[in-house]
């Protein structure tokens, strides 16, 4: 288990929002999950009003990474919101963060698989 695996979800979300703010990117918590160990979904809102939803995962080495939960291409915002709603039904401890990144760049620093 890596050191990053021990970081509490609330602290990771706060760090994500601060990183975005430092880059001039708006980030908002849409849903608070379990402060200790909740999983995180990232909704990236693009310039054309489409979105990508990234789901948290781990590499084989145990490092944080992301997968495109909403598929390989951006989807309409309504589809992204429906995906998030389904995931929240399965996991009430889930955190949801929206990042407004018009160019689709994600400031998370972790790879997208």
What would your notes on this structure say?
By secondary structure, the chain is an alpha+beta fold. It has one domain (3-100): Protein of unknown function (DUF1491) (hypothetical protein tt1805, 3-Layer(aba) Sandwich). The chain is 25% helix and 30% strand. The protein is built from two helices and six strands, in the order H-E-E-E-E-E-H-E. It has helices at 9-22, 77-90, and strands spanning 26-31, 40-45, 50-58, 64-68, 75-76, 95-100. Strands 1, 2, 3, 4, 5 and 6 form a six-stranded mixed beta sheet that branches. The longest helix has 14 residues, at 9-22.
Structural class: alpha+beta
CATH fold-level name: hypothetical protein tt1805
Number of helices: 2
* Largest sheet composition: 6 strands, mixed
CATH homologous superfamily assignment: Protein of unknown function (DUF1491)
CATH class: Alpha Beta
CATH architecture: 3-Layer(aba) Sandwich
């Amino acid at each position: 288990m890596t050191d990053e695996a021990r970081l509490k979800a609330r602290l990771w979300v706060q760090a994500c929002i601060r990183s975005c703010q430092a880059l001039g990117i708006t980030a908002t918590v849409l849903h608070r999950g379990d402060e200790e160990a909740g999983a995180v979904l990232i909704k990236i809102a693009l310039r054309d009003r489409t979105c990508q939803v990234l789901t948290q995962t781990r590499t084989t080495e145990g490092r944080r990474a992301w997968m495109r939960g909403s598929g390989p291409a951006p989807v309409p915002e309504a589809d992204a919101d429906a995906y998030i709603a389904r995931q929240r039904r399965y996991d009430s401890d889930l955190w949801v963060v929206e990042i407004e990144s018009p160019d689709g760049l994600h400031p998370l620093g972790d790879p997208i698989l």
